Amino acid sequence: MFDDEFFRDPYPLYDRLREQCPVQRMDGGRFPFWLITGYAEAREALADPRLSKDTSAFEHVLAPDGRTRDIAPAIARSLLATDPPDHTRLRRPVTRAFTPQLTDRLTPRIEQIAADLVADLADRREADLVADFAVPLPLTVICELLGVPPEDRPALRTWSQDLFLHGDHRHRDAASHHIAAYMTDLVTTRRTTRGDDLLSALLNDQDEAPTMSPEELVSLATLFVVAGHETTANLIANTALMLLTRPALMSDPHTTLEALPQIIEEALRFDAPLGIATIRFTREPVTYADTEIPADQAIMISLAAANRDPRSFTSPHTFTPTPRPQPHLSFGHGPHYCPGARLAKLETHIALTTLLTTFPTLTLTQPPSTLPWRQSRQMRSPQTLPTLLSAAPPPQPL
């Protein structure tokens, strides 16, 4: 696992592993882990209270040689690495921040950001739909929500990307400290200078009824900026790639726009923007698919593999933008289900609607098989999407 061929197309390997057994022990990397590739087993594990996400309690599993990582606490002990009751307590303000009503109120601003990005492309013949569109849209949305100045956003993007690079962990560890230090300074600034942003609202809530420590607030802010744009950027890029490589989906712009919600859902299943869920640990022995996993073991759940399990999905390797009986697992399942799922789909829908309305004809400028993919164990998307843009003709006078 985790070589160039895997990053380009992990599904042949996932299929082979699942056919052997949907739960297998893998020995690669710094520590052994159990990989789940089956849909039923993944769904069960995602909601299993016998599994822990508290990485601080299982450092001996992650570092069997005693050499622990130097990850900033704001990253290592985030909401994603906690169990109830701490997880329940820390998740509450996140859930309040992303209610359907509050999310939908962002629609006009997201539409404006998308329109501005498309306007910047209007005079160009070619563009990289990842760097020029898929990334800046959700990054701008979450940075505006948190009150991050425009001049600081490129650095945050670079550090965030570096957090997920496969390879030398020292590079990832350094990025974790950079982004944590920045968010610490931002929280400190907001304590004395409040604004009309999500971070100020969280601080106002903490002033009235404290539920988080200062360190936990920094960690939550850090999670917002990272999780708030990474997977959405991947989703926009992955869905755009589905359209670019399937001319039949683009033959009638009006039909494409009408089908866009289901196209996005199928893109989520077909190429999950988060290929492998955040790590879990066994508190006690557990059994999935007649395979017993002992206590004190690391578990990785492949959402991407589960979404293409032929036991749960008919023709799983065929992109079919029609409703399927089983829901995909790309936003997780159970108590850790992504609270930003609605916002991610809203941003993707607005982004692609705006793009396709302005440029109804989009063409990749290189074969799909030659596209570079993110070198990341978790994040799944092309690194670039070099695209030829063809604007819609101006309306004819009556």
TrEMBL record:
GO terms for molecular function: heme binding; iron ion binding; monooxygenase activity; oxidoreductase activity, acting on paired donors, with incorporation or reduction of molecular oxygen. It comes from Actinocorallia herbida. Gene3D superfamilies: Cytochrome P450. The lineage of its organism: Bacteria, Bacillati, Actinomycetota, Actinomycetes, Streptosporangiales. Pfam families: p450. This is Cytochrome P450. Residues 382-391 have a biased composition (Low complexity). Belongs to the cytochrome P450 family. It comes from the Bacteria. InterPro entries: Cyt_P450, Cyt_P450_B, Cyt_P450_CS, Cyt_P450_sf. Residues 366-398 are annotated as: Disordered. PANTHER family: CYTOCHROME P450 YJIB-RELATED, P450, PUTATIVE (EUROFUNG)-RELATED.
